[in-house]
Design brief:
The chain is an alpha/beta fold. It has a single domain, classed as Ribonuclease H-like superfamily/Ribonuclease H (Nucleotidyltransferase, domain 5), CATH 3.30.420. 35% of the residues lie in helices and 24% in strands. The protein is built from four helices and six strands, in the order E-E-E-E-H-E-H-E-H-H. Strands 1, 2, 3, 4, 5 and 6 form a six-stranded mixed sheet that branches. Strand 2 and strand 3 form a beta hairpin. Helix 3 crosses helix 4. The longest helix has 17 residues. It starts with a strand and ends with a helix. It holds the Pfam family DUF3010. This is DUF3010 domain-containing protein.
Length: 140
């Protein structure tokens, strides 16, 4: 099963492809590590983001997109742009989209086999959360 872990941060969606086959986890190469949105108040910008994201999921035959849940209230609440991006991803009809809570992610990572750090597997440091989200979902 191939999933795309997503962390929404500010005006960008950081992604990491994670594949689980025969109990083995591997990280397929991906031409994009993050999507930025420059003008989040413009409808065309949101549509462009959604089109590019959908095309990438189709090209890499991703079955499920897993978004790391963000809190809606309080000191660590997600921003409005992040919620727009989340909605744009959730409305893509070509893939299944799941939102993974921090509690479920933590529990899954706790009982999962040893997980490698992103630098050990050749990913960028900022992809750590997206990688952990995809990895945790595959080990639920």
């Amino acid at each position: 099963m191939k999933v795309c872990g997503v962390e929404l941060k500010g005006n960008e969606a950081i992604i990491c492809l994670v594949n689980k086959s025969d109990g083995m986890i591997d990280l397929p190469d991906c031409r994009v590590a993050k999507f930025d949105i420059t003008e989040p108040s413009k409808t065309e910008s949101i549509r462009d983001f959604q089109f590019k994201f959908k095309k990438l999921m189709e090209d890499y035959q991703v079955e499920t997109v897993v978004i790391k849940e963000r809190v809606m209230k309080g000191k660590f609440a997600g921003g409005a742009v992040g919620f727009k991006l989340e909605a744009a991803i959730q409305l893509i009809d070509a893939v299944e989209v799941e939102v993974l809570s921090a509690m479920d992610q933590k529990a899954s990572l706790k009982r999962a086999p040893e997980m490698l750090r992103v630098k050990e597997v050749g990913l960028k440091g900022y992809q750590q959360e997206a990688y952990e989200t995809g990895f945790a979902f595959l080990n639920l």
